[in-house]
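Students often ask why we bother encoding 3D structure as a string. The short answer is that it lets us treat folding as translation between two languages. Here is a chain of 374 residues written in the first language.
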Amino acid sequence: MALKIGIVGLRGIGHTHGDAYANEPLGDLVAVCDVVKSRADEAAEKYGVKAYYSLADMLDGEPDLDVVDVTTGGYENASWHYEPVMEALEAGKNVLCEKPLSADINEARDMVALAAEQRVYFGCNLNHYFTPPAERARQYMDEGHIGELVFCLHKMGFNGGEPEGYQPPGSRRIKGWPYFHLKAFLSHPFSVMRYFCGDVTHVQAFCNRPGWRRRVDDTMVSTASIHVRFANDCVGYLLSQRGDASYGLGGWWSCEVAGTKGTFCIENCIEKLYYWPGPLSEAKPEDLNLGEMGGPVVHDTGIKDFGATFPRRIHAFLEDITNQVFFEDIRASGRDALAALEYTFAVIESYENGGALVNPYPLPPLHGDPTVIE
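And here it is in the second language, the structure alphabet:
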């Protein structure tokens, strides 16, 4: 039986989720909710479901609701997540929340703690690794074709450069918030890096914004150069920028993970995967003989639409609930999203202290399921 879904927040991203449910066999969208009546009514008509104007009314009117999907926004794209998430969790509902979990790290910690206390499913729309290239890359890792991890290089942002007559964003959700880009955007690349390489233990960041932003008093910190160390001693580098310059090789999104037996690189998130096996001959740098490389093996999905990541991620969340996996074992969990946000706040702390090395705040412990762990 399909899970009954209610969406809270019907701006653009709410409709993206709604469109995904329209073609999702594991989910049945039955209600939409927005405090702006016209938005709720428009979405209700579009999807043929009932409209509500408060989450409390939706929970009362739909007692059999299985999942509350929170797609609200707010300041820094996340200040309106906390109240509906906490209200739904307190009602014992499973929750899928848009990223980032919150613009405030303490609120994000509270959400994850309450979900664990309630023992319900709490997931986040970390959709960038629910793709065929990421799945094939993990297969390479699981089959031993990457070996011991050595480094991870991730470049992710917006293609751009100095525009003619630039003016800073006028929206109150963005204007005057210097860390808008870092908070609203870094959850995605950090979640991808952690998905492949594990927990991050050290963060060092140097951030800036170009002169054309400064000249018009745009306070947004828009370029971030971030060096990290993982718990497994792999090192990593993340470059993220908000349209400050044109991107070159690899496009707007590339993630390269190198190991002692091979290297892969994902291009443009959902489009391509390259795999290079280890060198066929011994490298001798002193003789300028750097070793002959095999490959690359290229996996081209033929998919150009980044929007295809949303239904894939939503399906995975519903699949985990349907299969009744242990609540800590869901993919792209709230705890996973909290990890990415902890790293983001470590970036801000490092930047504010001139590039100081920062240890991210520790994640809440996992307890495991005694019925399945031997």
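Translate back mentally: The chain has a mean pLDDT of 95. Keep this in mind for the problem set.
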